[in-house]
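Table 4 source record.
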Amino acid sequence: MTERRAGAPSTGRAVRGPWRVFAATAVGVVAVFLNMSGLAVALPTITRELGADPGQADWILLGYMLVTTALILVFGRLADIVGRRSLYLAGLVVFTAGTGLAALSPSAGLLIAARIVQGVGAAAVITNNTALLTDVFPARTLGRALGWNVTVAATAQVAGPVVGGAATQLLGRRGLFIVCVPIGLIAIGASMAAVPANRKRDGGTREPFDLPGALLSTAMLTALVLTLTPGVTAGVADWLPWVCGGATAALLAAFAVVQTRRSHPLVDVLLLRTRAIALVLAAVLANAVGSYAVVLLASLHEQAVGGASSLEAGVLVTPVAAGTLITSAAAGSLFDRFTPRALTTTGMATTACGLLGFSLTLSAAAVPFWTMAPFLFLVGAGTGLFMTPSTSALMLSAPADRRGMANGLRSTTQNVGYLLSTALALALTTTGLGEPARRAAYDGTLNTLNVLGSGELHRFVANLRVTGFVLTGITVIGGAVCLALPNSLRTARGAATEEPPAAANGRPEPATSRKASP
């Protein structure tokens, strides 16, 4: 007898083996996040071999994130309409093609273009992954599945520097992309075989796509990214970030007006009026901003100051992956026993302690592995403990026909945080440095320049510390937000036997999604 999935409308046929779906989508997650985070340690080699200037180096990192952030919200809503499987597979194909183009790129400009193609595909993959799992897993095991999903994503994201460092040292600037191409191909084949066909809505009707909302949200998020990352507009106009900031505010106002007047909006604004959902999204933003750049900071310090190779820098940050792996795997089970408020607050506090300790260990020389490792482990452990309960609480609070939208909001918020974290790190760490020193900081040769006399090496280290303290403060604020989460948020076990909060979004759920099977 086939078990009905929690909140999933009937598809006309049973979903076979939810863990089989998990295994297939996990390969896609590995491909995307390995590539995204591996560039942190590969960037100095890429910059040197392509002769990229600091502005181009910024674009290599941030161009991908800009496109991904701008499209996640659009793809989240589109998936609810056309089906998650179709969009997910298309995303894998586009991402893998972009990765191949990146491996073949002979110049910094073409590499940036390839990274933008990658970002389009990654947006479709990231948006649909969690929603696909929510569709096929029963509510009583959903927390565990999402916990392992977070484990895979977070571990791949932080293990990326090790793989990227090794591949770059062996194969040069193309190494990371060469490694990711076959992983993408495997993900395509596995997902075609395992992911069930697109779900059909009851009544066979399809909601219209909110094109005005999609255009406004894409323009708004693009303007926001350019506002937050003045490094990518360097050399164009000093006033451009200010103009983009004004445009962001105007586009946000227009977007809010349009969404309240659409019968089938891109974002159901009533979702954001739910206190729990709004607080979870705020905490997700703070966690992403606070924790994401620690790998970049550690890599820049060890390569630019300590003279480490890309592989050595990658190995240095493995404690982050270890911490994330241990706690995110356990968090799925803990979610059934403790409230999201308790778990997320503990996770934030752990991350803050790790960031503070990491910042205090930085010096104008290479830092021994065992000095920095415990603090990096705490950063990873706190992140892993936070991500699973926050994701589970958000997805179980959303109606089945709004899960793509809810996951799109979560993914967009998280990616804005990642991008802001990276932008802060790149901007703050090079503040006050001359052009030669700034270029050397990016390509990992700062320690070879005659900069001690001018104090630029010590200035760079001081900037790294300040950046770490800023990220610590943001994480502490995120912990305060987690403390404000209502205790009434139900665990996965409780949500499996109770109706979803229809009043939270003002729209009744389909009759087929009202209760989960025991």
